[in-house]
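TOKENISE THE FOLD
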Amino acid sequence: MGLSRWTRALVALAVVVPAFAAATANASTLSDDEAVPLGSRADAGEWDENVANMAEAFRYTAAADGPVDAVNVKLDRRFVSRRQSAPNARLIAGIYANGNGRPGALLGKGTLNSFDHRAWNTVPITPVELEKGERYWIAVMSRGETITLKTSTFGRGTDPSATSPKNMNDLPAAWRHDRTFEGDSPASLYAVERYSVLVFTKNATGQTAEGVAALRALPDAQEVTFDVTDDATDFNDANLAKYRAVVFLNNAGELLDAAQQAAFEKYFKGGGGFLGIHSAIEAEPDWQFMTDILGTRADGRTDALDATIKVADRVHVASKGLPEYWTRNDRWYNFTGNVRGFSHVLATVDENTYTGGTDGFDHPIAWCKDYQGGRSFYTGGGGTAGTYGTSGFRQHLAGALDWAAGKAD
């Protein structure tokens, strides 16, 4: 089983110990193309058991300016059958300033009252403003029971880690130092900024529950607050200001009054994000601004049919990793005009592979654009309940949301 810090230190003095086998990678709570402001989302190749009430901090260099308010911690207690933490256990994480080669002053911290011993855990912390290029330490400890971290043990990493004494009940305002382990960082820890997304479902044509469930199951969903509403009065300046993106989930027809339209237009032009899913192409048909951000309108759709999508953009976060020729079942919209040249087309549907297509050989089905200060993404997928349960469409949806919210390019 994994060696504790203390056992490993003694063994390392006596013999050269071969590295433990790398662990099987688990799904991260951060999408692959989303930048890490501080820390590492990689699944570190070793693991270390940290006894209860002892803190360990790992040094990293900030990759970006800006605030972070959550720390993701990868636990991998593979030799214990129980996954859920004990009722009295607490997972505590925080960020320390760098001070003379070891952690210095505590900048922000938080506590998770229940955690999973074999997964990523998101610990909300008080906000910390990072400066790109500066060094910081991400610290983690468990009060009440032993945890196993994924680390670069035996000095295989690029930066040091530091441990505290074993009698800690919390992360102190000033680091209490016991030992330094050179080259034990990076560990599978990273800090991020949480954000909120408004999911609008008024006049949805169907698949609302499946769509919401898919959004809440996305790789970084623990860092996102999804507020789901069918109430158009939520479209006001004060409320919209809380959100990085607004999702129109299968909406159709008239949705907003003039004041609500004005609030959404102001939000979008002020840097907000829009993600339209499937029937959103039918939303607000008489509102020119909605037509402009969508790029075109619906001209009928088929029943649920198998069809093949040609994924042309192999780099964009919303299409990277998808099959180049992606066959799946959905309802397929025809459109009144071609968005190519006005929007960036990620994928087209091949009308030779199904019946009912009327757009011809160039039939875009997913596209995006920066427009008048905001970001707009539309996907024609999502017309069947089964679509939302497929890994490929969820991968596509995750990238689309990250892009619309400005979390990825």
The first strand starts at residue 38 and ends at 39. DSSP finds six helices and 25 strands in the chain.
